[in-house]
Amino acid sequence: MRYRLSALALAAAATLLAGCASSREVSIAPLPAGESQADLGLGPGVRPLSSGPGDKSAPNWSPDESRISFVLDGYVVDKPLNTQGLRRWTTKDFGAEEVEYNSKGGLTILGKDNPSNSKAPQPAGDSGATSSIYQTLPRKESFKLNKITGDALAIVPGQDGKGLVVALKTNTFQSGIAIIGSDGRVEKVYKNLIGGRVMGLALSPKGDQLVLSVQGAATFALYALDLSDGSSRVLARLKPDLEIFGAPQWTSHGIYYVAGDKNIEKTDAAPYKLYKIEPDSDAPEPAPGVGEDFIASSLRASPDGERLAVIGRRNPNSLTNLYIINVATNDLQAATSNDDMEIKTGPEDLAWSRSGEEVAIIASGAVADLKVHAAPASSLLADFYNLYEVPVNEQ
Amino acid sequence: MRGLVFWISGAAFAFVVTAGAFLFLANLSSNTSEKSLSPATPSAASGPSLSLSLQKDQLSSLKQLKDQKLTVTAKNSGDEELSGISLTLKVSSEDTSIPEVRYYRATVDQIKAGKSSDTPLDIDLSPLDQNDEITSTRTIIEVRATTPSGVSAVKTAILPTQTSQPSG
């Protein structure tokens, strides 16, 4: 009887403890996958990085991917990735073209020199317009910038995002290269290396060579330049009626560039094609894997050089989308599923995050008609060009 | 032997009492969190509510000129009278580098529950950029209504660009 009483008490205690354990399961219910993310017209998983009015361009991720900078109506801003809180870095009439985070957490800016003079007649092969390179100063010095150099034509961040490589106009028909250190000082200058005007440049994956697209008096050409001794060689010279759009990209499996007929107005439907050339070859070929109808616009190599992000169309009748090419396998995958959005196709209008897991693009919805919304202008998305983050880690 | 059984039974009883106390406290805690997770049920037309509307016909007829007329309609959709409603209309460009912004303000004394009030405003829609004869970018009209008690509403209209010099 006594043992029975003890056993009963222990059984009761065990039952009560089991009751305690089962009550914890009630409060944990998983959120249905994808329910928290609406499709913004670019496909699932795409999320906005900005909102409100203004023409945005040239996005760039901070090294730790906590912030993103861009050019807004010609001036430079940056913001935290997931909240508003726009920080303006230049005066509103600055005329910024590109902006890059530097390794010290500030910004390096490419800004137009005398934009009002760019309409003056210039010799063939020389548009005349140049830019200057600036570095931002601590925020307490409101809108003050440190000018690094003038006569700049194009920039690309140095290896691993440290320093800067700048193409310079050295005289009317020649260009040079300057290597800028992380502290903003000019470390090395190669003068009069290249005949013509550098329109874009990119580093090789090892960081020891550059590929340059150069506009000569009559033709465009691709040059490879060895940064150890400044020697250069022509990789390819295009036919007189062809031009290279934007900067070429040097991947782990060759150099890619976009070219098309310079007599046709450059729109996202203009028949510009994607080409590939091996660094030790002089024979470019249509990029494999994209199909002969593919129309390419802007392109960027991933930080590890293994993938290429391309904004383009599968064929002239399809919508513009972001595509990712695996350059080892030539596999082309759509990263967006465009539902009638207008994706910007400027040469600087896409950017890889440093991890290679996301690409930032710029898009807007139809803008021609009168629109009325029950929301403040600063919160509107598709009515203006805004930045979107596209996940690409699956491609 | 009897003493040993007594102490074992006592320990088991004490354990049961302690476990019961913990179970009671755990249930109290889980009940509280379940309550906080359940969504609030919206009650229709309870409390103050304000909405704004702009007439699309009127918006479509606006020109890039001075002295344009626009009527702002504020509606009290709640079940309480609203008073001292401040209206602010802001005219700006979608080009954020243009610094000029025009503000217009008006006050509606009161709107009874379920009623509306129209406020006609004369606004200047001539180009905000002094260097332009015609605006090449879209104009944004943003209207906000707020009451001293914190009830608010907002409406934004984005006017399309006009491709030729407007007349009239």
Largest sheet of chain A: 7 strands, antiparallel
**Count of distinct strands of chain B:** 7
Major β-sheet profile of chain B:
4 strands, antiparallel
- What's the total number of strands of chain A? 29
Helix-strand string of chain B: HEHEEEEEE
Shape of chain A: globular
Q: Which two chains share the most extensive interface?
A: A-B, 39 and 42 residues
Name the beta content range of chain B. 35-45%
Coarse structural class of chain A: mainly beta
Which segments of chain A are poorly predicted (pLDDT under 50) over 5 or more consecutive residues? 1-36, 117-126
Radius of gyration of chain B: 31 Å
Q: Average pLDDT of chain B, to the nearest integer?
A: 82
Strand order of the largest sheet of chain A: 6-7-8-9-10-11-12
Helix content of chain A: under 10%
Question: Mean pLDDT of chain A, rounded to whole units?
Answer: 86
Give the overall shape of chain B: elongated
Biggest sheet, spatial arrangement of strands of chain B: 4-3-6-7
Compact description:
The complex is a heterodimer of chains A (395) and B (168). By secondary structure, chain A is mainly beta.
Structure overview:
- The complex is a heterodimer of chains A (395) and B (168).
- Chain A is mainly beta.
- Helix content of chain A is 6%, strand content 44%.
- In chain A, strands 6-7-8-9-10-11-12 form a seven-stranded antiparallel beta sheet, with no helix packed on it.
- In chain A, 41% of the residues are buried.
- The model of chain A is unreliable at 1-36 and 117-126 (pLDDT under 50).
- Chain B contains two helices and seven strands; from the N terminus they run H-E-H-E-E-E-E-E-E.
- Chain B is elongated, with a radius of gyration of 31 Å.
- Chain B has a four-stranded antiparallel beta sheet, with no helix packed on it. Chain B has a three-stranded antiparallel beta sheet with strand order 1-2-5.
